[in-house]
Amino acid sequence: VADLLDRLREVGAGEQVTVLADRAATHATLDNPYTVADLLDRLQEVGADEQVVLLADRAATHATLDDPYAVAFLLDRLREVGADQQVATLADRLPAAGMFGRFLEVADRMVQYQFGREPDGCPAGRWRWEDLE
Q1: Cβ-contact 33, 71 below 8 angstroms
Q2: Nearest Cα to Cα of residue 52 among 72, 16, 32, 79
Q3: CA 79 to CA 87: how far, in whole Å?
Q4: DSSP state, 126?
Q5: How far apart are CA 97 and CA 17, in angstroms?
Q6: What are residue 117's DSSP bridge partners?
Q7: pTM recorded for the entire structure
Q8: pLDDT tens string for the chain (133 positions)?
Q9: Residue 8's CB: how many other CB atoms inside 10 A?
Q10: Which of 108, 57, 106 is nearest to 81 (CA)?
């Protein structure tokens, strides 16, 4: 789809680019963060700003999180297209997917979560070894 958007733009098929961009942003599968990131780039390149926001929203809340490298790539692309709120939304999903380290890297959360994270998602308070039972 990303390549087709490029080709349609190259031949001046603006109406078809808009139709395809709408469909892609609304219906693209979200099971491969690499391809979602590529599609975000292409949508931005063809000037489909509304579709970028729509796909970014969908990806932030529903993208598959089983590949840490692909997730990092998607986070980078979301930043590049200016989807800061979507970056935060996706980052908030990372601890539950076993990517607490990546969660800490987003928006420099190392200070806020220096003692870890409570089960409810809040930053853990300072503790001492004597506090452990």
Answers
A1: yes
A2: 79
A3: 7
A4: P
A5: 35
A6: 123
A7: 0.79
A8: 888 887 888 888 878 888 888 899 999 999 999 999 999 999 998 888 999 999 999 999 999 999 999 999 999 999 999 999 999 999 989 988 988 888 888 877 777 777 877 888 788 888 888 877 7
A9: 19
A10: 57
